[in-house]
Amino acid sequence: MRVLITGGAGHVGSPISERFVARGWDVRVIGVDPTCDLKGVKYAQCDILDYQALRGHVHGCDAIVHLAAIPSTISHPNHALFEINVAGTYNVFEAAARAGVKRIAQASSINALGGYWGCDDRQFDYFPLDEAHPPHTTDAYSLSKQMVEQIAAYYWRRSGISSVSFRLPAVWSEALIEKRQLREDLQEKRDALAAFQQLPDDEQRRQLAIAREEALKLRARHVMEYEAAQSGDFDRKAPKDNWLFSSYFFDRFNYWTFIHTDDSTQAFERAITGDYVGAHPLFVNSDRNYLDYDSEALLSIFFPDVRPRSKAIASAQTLVSYDRARDLLGYEATVHAV
């Protein structure tokens, strides 16, 4: 099988490229960097906004894994982010359609629902979240991911390209877990949560009200975007010194959800080789929240007004259901906690 991987030398793409090479596939990787140190791939420098160059790399491929994108609102202005993510994705699908490629697996984002990069307090109808939940996007990155899923649906209708758009959460490798000392950080938060739950109810409400007001005031100023990062208006690292503010500002908006690179890699392989038709946005993630903490306790603290449950949540089970990925692809998380 000949597979083209856009952005195949990046954090998510490298293990996918390596796995496909190990399968004996003909793996073509393109990216904007002039060099690539991946073994066994055929690498070429190519910008997905250069449609004519892209067409040459798509020609002769059996499938495409599309990962090339701007992954946050921090590094690029909104107009540039949107152009790369949306127009670039359109180019990939259009080139595939012209070349007769009928299978694409692409990286969408958990933020296609809206959330982590947004500027308001995202409201939810129920938990666990699933693909039926309506979106509420208030930032360019989340909107761009909403759009790439629509592009996939368009090309299924127009050209019969079957695709999966994976709504990836934070993707953590062992190297990243060690580098960021995530295990230590998460243990501190578990301890802090346990102590917080021992406080009287009125004191819990008081502290949460302060954290909520501070977090939403900052989000309303678009501090998670490029201009704020360039001006130094907001230091994303500093609020993490206050565990409750950090939990409300960051963790609450990604639902304590992650996926290990072992599982993102198996998901993309399943999307390339699976027996299905149509265009499918799918959540894939761990089966437990990354705190490995009682999920109903997290909801009672941070989402007390969201009472409905799409299904029962036991113990530390994920707040984002991947039932559809299980049913369509046979995906099952193999890494359950950090």
Span of the ends, CA to CA: 34 Å
Sketch the major β-sheet.
7 strands, parallel
- H and E order: EHEEHEHEHEEHHHHHEHEHH
Number of strand segments: 9
Q: What is the name of the CATH superfamily of the domain at 2-173 and 257-286 and 317-329?
A: NAD(P)-binding Rossmann-like Domain
Strand content is 5-15%
- Assembly annotation: single chain
- Low-confidence residue ranges: none
The strand order across the widest sheet is 3-2-1-4-5-6-9
- What would CATH call the architecture of the domain at 2-173 and 257-286 and 317-329? 3-Layer(aba) Sandwich
The helix-and-strand class reads: alpha/beta
What fold name stands as the CATH topology of the domain at 2-173 and 257-286 and 317-329? Rossmann fold
Mean pLDDT across the residues is 96
Radius of gyration over all CA atoms, rounded: 20 Å
Shape: globular
Number of helices: 12
Q: What would CATH call the class of the domain at 2-173 and 257-286 and 317-329?
A: Alpha Beta
Query: Which percent range fits the helix content?
Result: 40-55%
